[in-house]
Amino acid sequence: MPNAYSRAAKAHTHDNEGIRLQKLLAQAGFGSRRKCEEIITEGRVEIDGELVTELGTRVDPKHQEVRVDGSRVRVNPNHVTLALNKPKRVLSAMEDPKGRYTLSDIVGDKYDRIFHMGRLDYDSEGLILMTNDGELSQHVMHPKYEVEKTYIATLEGRISGQVCRRLVTTGVQLDDGWIKLDRCAILDASRDGTLVKVVLHSGKNRIVRRIFGAIGFPVRRLVRTQIGPIKLGDLKSGSYRVLSQTEVRSLSKAVGL
Question: Which tens digit of pLDDT belongs to each residue from 27-59?
Fold first, then answer.
């Protein structure tokens, strides 16, 4: 049976134009060229909604939409996405009229039109994602896609497992409404402090500090360790790294791209 895509391909891309499909998939982080060929022949790839199984197929990624297992393949050589480990007393902004240290002081001017996706408050630390991909940024920050965020918080006082569970099952009422944690786990505890790991979807300002402050356990230190599938890992404070295409693809998939 002829390839379902053959007629559509001829309408958009001549044999000597565009990029070979397996090369595009490899650039997008789907694995080696051989692995990408297997993905194509297994019938997992669509171009403009048409199934493609021919290895010689060429595609123009600027004008045609490629999907693997239903998820869009996004490759733009001008786009870059960074993971940055924000130290305390750094403003989650690109500039500050008061002259405080900002994210641009860490990243510099190497990347054109790059911006942070979300914020951390001035005294909090940890993972911030930055990009010059406007579509990705919009999806990551939109409440609709409910990106999970993981934090390690050092609390004043000794919190019980029962209180942790109640924050997940019932939540707590703040000035702007009820809020629940997705998960809460005690990592360590002493007589005057508790180390907890919390996961939640909300991106509201100072939300973790507000939750624990509302129940009488002020946060001494707060570190964000993960956003969606992207982890802080061993990235040093005050430094950043460029995400791999595989990481960008996993993040894009998590936010519906």
Answer: 777 877 888 888 899 999 999 988 988 888 898
Residue 170: closest CA among 152, 156, 184:
184
**Residues linked to residue 127 through DSSP beta bridges, in sequence order:** 85
Half-sphere exposure of 12 (CA within 13 A, CB side): 19
| Separation CA 112–CA 78 (nearest Å) | 9
pTM of the model: 0.78
Query: What is residue 157's three-state secondary structure?
Result: coil
3-class SS at 93?
coil
Measure Cα distances from 236 to 83, 111, 170, 240 in Å: 11, 20, 36, 8
| Residue in 200, 172, 170 with CA at minimum distance from that of residue 185 | 200
121 is catalytic: yes
**Choice among 121, 123, 175, 234 that is catalytic:** 121
pLDDT score of 155: 96
Q: Which residues of 124-163 are buried (b: 16+ CB within 10 A; e: fewer)?
A: bbbbbbbbbbeebbebbbeeeeebebbbbbbbeeebeeeb
Tokens of 193: 């402090």
DSSP string over 24-37: HHHHTTS--HHHHH
Output the DSSP codes for 48-89.
Answer: TTEEE--TT-EE-TTTS-EEETTEEP---TT--EEEEEEPTT
Q: Residue 145 has which token pair?
A: 């896609």
How far apart (Å, rounded) are the C-alpha atoms in residues 150 and 223?
Answer: 9
